[in-house]
Amino acid sequence: MGYLFKLGIRLFIALAIVFFGNKAVYFLLSKLTFLISYLLLFPYNPLVFGNSLIINNMKLEFIPACVAASAYVLFGLLILLTKDIRLKQGIKIFSLGAFILFIVNILRIFILAISLIEFDIRLFETLHLFFWQVFSTIFVVLTWIYLTRKFNIKTIPIYSDSKHLRKIIEFK
After folding, report:
1. Alpha carbon distance 80, 139 (integer Å)
2. Within the chain, which residues score under 50 in pLDDT?
3. Which single residue of 30, 33, 126, 172 has CA 20 to 30 Å from 23?
């Protein structure tokens, strides 16, 4: 298969992920995220009420954003938009990265829940905003950098393809 064909496939899959990725990740991970969060908070005797946990008369509602689907989508896009990542290598990178993202997301939920249960709503809201607005994207990018170094990836998402395409166009 030629470079342009592979690039077309990568871009098509990336486009599909943009449109359907969040829903797919939510479908796959929402119940597992809720269950593990419940088990971690079990010492607080949580009551399950739909998609919420009730602890000490406080409601911790699990909305779709709690799964952090956009983090997995961003991570997947970084892999697909990087030239020279082979299929098997991409699957390994995504699997390891998704595992890291899942563990950190569960830890995030636990920290937020403890901040609400043990402290107050102001700390919860401050931490929640920090995790949502600052930490999440930075963490995905740092995970990406770590794994690309671990797997010895030398190309840069989008940039390396653009540079290669420019060479092809100039050559013709």
Report:
1. 18
2. none
3. 126
